[in-house]
Specification:
heterodimer, A: mainly alpha, B: about 325 residues, mainly alpha, 14 helices
Amino acid sequence: MPLTLLTEAVVNGVLLGLVYALISVGLSLTLGVLGVVNMAHSAFVMLGSFFALELLLRLGAPPMLSVLAAAPLFFGVGMAVDRLLLRRTASTSEAMGLLVLFGLMLVLENGAILVWTTDTRVLPWQMGQMVLAMGGLRVSFGRLLAAGLALTMILVLDFLLRRTLLGKVVRAVGQNPDAAAVLGVDVTRISMVVVGAGVATAAMGGVAVAMMFPFAPQEHLRWLAWAFLLVIVGGLGRVRNTLVAGLLVGQLEALSGILLPFQYVYAVVYAFLAITLILRGRGLQAAQERTL
Amino acid sequence: MAVLGLTVGIGLWAEGLGLLSTLTNVFLFLLLTQAWNLLGGYAGYLNLAMAVFFGVGAYTTGILAHRGNWPPLLTAPLGGLVAVLWAAAVGVPSLRVRGPYFAVLTMILGFLAQVLAYNVPWTRGAMGIYVSPLPWDRRVVEQFFYFTYLGLALLVTGMAARIQSSRFGAALVAVREDEVAAGVLGVRTTWVKVAALLLGAFWAGVAGGLYTQRIGYIEPTGVFSLDISVDVVLMAMVGGAGTWQGPLLGVPLVMLVAELLRVGVVHLGLFGARIPVEFNRVVFGAALIFIALYAPQGLMGLIRPFRGRRLGV
């Protein structure tokens, strides 16, 4: 019996890890390519969750479909954020850019509370409540689907970045924006694409989150902490590293979930995150200059 | 001077306790904002966890008063000292991290402090701590905290003004403008940053310590709230971060707007009386975006050009 408990924890850790990776990959991308710390990232995760909820309640659309709808919509939102807010702060200090995104986070979070209140919601989705049982091992079908979805999206993003011309251009901007501009790259346009992709993956991650966990507008900052953890563990800009970091953190959480009382998991994660930030904070900034 | 006379007059003769308590909150935030401004404004290190020092001070007082009935005049400075210890243990290593990463790190430390306050045995977790009120008439108690906070706010404002025109202040500004260059030119950047952090932590701890005695009940969500940290940053930014006059303008303005929104939204019933607090925060978030984009120097930045022209070379 303890063995199945352990295998269940490992399997759950893998599923969690994949979704964490999807949530974090956008943060890593915007930070790695543009050097922008997107404080509003997790707010878009939360909006993605509510997007899935609304589509399900109003149109009866299953979350697998709302992911497809969320991608272009939030890509546009991200482009608008870059065009209207970030481009203006590019010339001022980094601190001002951070404050702008922090302000955006406050607006999105509290706007969401006005619309959806602070109640905790669960996606009322029949298929997600099914449980698959294989040889004594029980896995929630919703979690399995969410993880599969996350893996697909991450592989697609990895392919786009590594194999297409657009991906190469994005990586070029990440390495040296001035040189890229000299070679004829429209850096402002690429920056819009990158922020758009970051916000879109955040929202898609939010749909996956809604398939796995209960969610509420005011609880999204937890995902910001998790995403930073993955970025710090996995380094910047490389999609595959974020994936590996996600699997690692997923295992950590699942296993410490057996060993520790639930609320201590948070304390451990936050303390670990703070310590690595202190120890690696400068390394991260240096790494930012030679990513991708 | 006239404003000062008016505030003292209000403190002595005001009829309603409501006005007194609102103004006490203004002084409380003035104290916190000036404390934040030392590191955040002058040195440009965006601390998003001022609430941690406030909360540590509040809990120090809470635990001491709960266990041994210590008097507030003693526990408040002790709260400040414990906040300084906390800042030395946790904050000083954090100062190695720069720019946006510092802001993120402080926010994470804020969450950590809150989670710890919920789970450590001697804080009584989510049950919170009750402190018996001071044994005087309600009005006298309110006046006592009114003048204590007023006095402290004035003291710290005066201190900030002195610092701004001192070598210490100049060193902090040099750190903000270019830390590496300042170091090369012989500014002891680490020492200067640590001093600003610890000084700010002390006053925030004192403010928290008095808060416990005034309110009589604390729990982790309230005193370690991210909202307090955000409000402090917003108030400093509105007035003008990195000037001692900035908080004097920003704090009353933001609190006035908050009060108007609270009353106004309830009155209009636009969003129902149940949720006005979040509407406040939407407006504040938008204000933060606007200031960062169009007026990074805050109100002081709008006033300064004129004065500069008059005195200009």
